[in-house]
Amino acid sequence: MDVSIVIPTKNGGSLLNEVLRNIFKQKTKYLYEVICVDSGSKDETIQIIKNFDIKLYQIEPEDFGHGKTRNFGASKGSGEFIIFITQDAVPASECWMENLVNAMKLDDDIAGGFGIHYPYPDCNIIDKRDITMHFRGFGEDNTIFFLEDNERYKIDEGYRHLLGFFSDNNSCLRRSVWEKYPYEDVNFSEDQIWARKIIELGYKKVYCPFAPVFHSHNYKISSYFGRYFDEHKALYVIHQYINIKKWYFVLPAAFRHIYIDSKYVKNMKIGKKRKLKELNYIIWRNLSRYVAGYLGGHYAFYPNWYKKFLDRHISQQYKQKRA
To answer: According to the model, what pLDDT value does residue 151 have?
Structure first.
């Protein structure tokens, strides 16, 4: 088997059906298998999976973990390459898998690769801009990244983030490397923790803009608050990075970001009513970004009782696991 495609699922709904249809429409010379690991779906997810030629494994909700569940799914396959994709990331090309695996084959030292994300057509204006600019920063062609400058890596935060970024919404791992260095059993950012490890071990990663998926979200502000909290918790674990170091920097940073986003929306050719709606959204989202970012960034320094309180009331990952 050339490729094992692993998808963790839970209440994937109709979008999962679209993901699977597009996977099975791939034009490729590679032999591939699809493995789904479901952690307690209560909607039509199981029936959708059974409509396709898929290996299905079911686990209890409390046994789910972003790292360990993906490891479990990968262990049930035999492909030389392991593709991880999520239930809400729709392959946007019939050559998605072919191009991603071909990029992995550019160099035997490539341990992992990730493909571009396209925002869905209904994606909000700010996420559409941010997703587009983020992936554009990795290059317009297949681009290999590795640790070239150890001194720069020690002192340059941006360089560490560039080398450490990875997204298993749309990724590929070389099985021989994964068997030595599987994902860690963590609640968040298992992909970026893995990427930092393999980069520091001397392996390479590849970015493939020719392996696109549609992937974006229009979350409620409360959901963004929880996700920013989790994201900044993870940034400290991975990079020891704290975005907002003092509480009195929170509002100035938020207002600066509000100003930048407002200028962007102001220059767009959209109606006045739409602009006012977007401006209101920008204000609340950026306040959430920096308040939650401050709390998440300093999480490691809080007493245990306060950590439990924040997890229970803010963390999106905590809520998803409890659900």
So the answer is: 95
Query: Which residues pair with residue 36 across a beta bridge?
Result: 7, 56
pLDDT of residue 114: 98
User: What's the burial of 200, exposed, middle or buried (CB within 10 Å: 0-12/13-18/19+)?
Assistant: middle
CA angle 55, 216, 243 (to 5 degrees): 115
CB burial of 251-277 (b: ≥16 within 10 Å; e: otherwise) equals eebbeebbeebbeebeeeeeeeeeeee
Q: 40, 70, 56, 45: which is closest to 321 by C-alpha?
A: 40
Residues sharing a CB contact under 8 Å with residue 243, sequence separation 6 or more, in sequence order: 232, 235, 253, 290, 293, 294, 297
The helix or strand, by DSSP H or E, that contains position 27, with its residue range, turns out to be none
Given a contact cutoff of 8 angstroms between Cβ atoms, the answer to whether 64 and 8 are in contact is yes
Tokens of 74: 């990968």
- Specify the 3-state DSSP secondary structure of 188: coil
Cα 239 to Cα 218: distance, rounded to the nearest angstrom:
27
| Nearest to 289, CA basis, from 226, 233, 195, 202 | 226
What is the reported pLDDT for 101?
98
Report which of residues 319 and 183 the model is more confident about: 183
Is residue 173 predicted with pLDDT exceeding 80?
A: yes
Are 229 and 316 a contacting pair, CB within 8 Å?
yes
pLDDT number for residue 36:
98
Question: Residue 320 pLDDT more than 90?
Answer: no
DSSP 144: E
Is the Cβ–Cβ distance between 77 and 33 less than 8 Å?
Answer: yes
- According to DSSP H, which parts of 31-105 are helical? 45-50, 66-75, 96-104
Rounded Cα distance, 159 and 149, in Å = 9
pLDDT at 285: 93
CA 168 remoteness from chain centre: 6
Going by C-alpha positions, the residue among 178, 181, 185 that lies closest to residue 68 is 185
pLDDT at position 273 over 80: yes
pLDDT of residue 317: 76
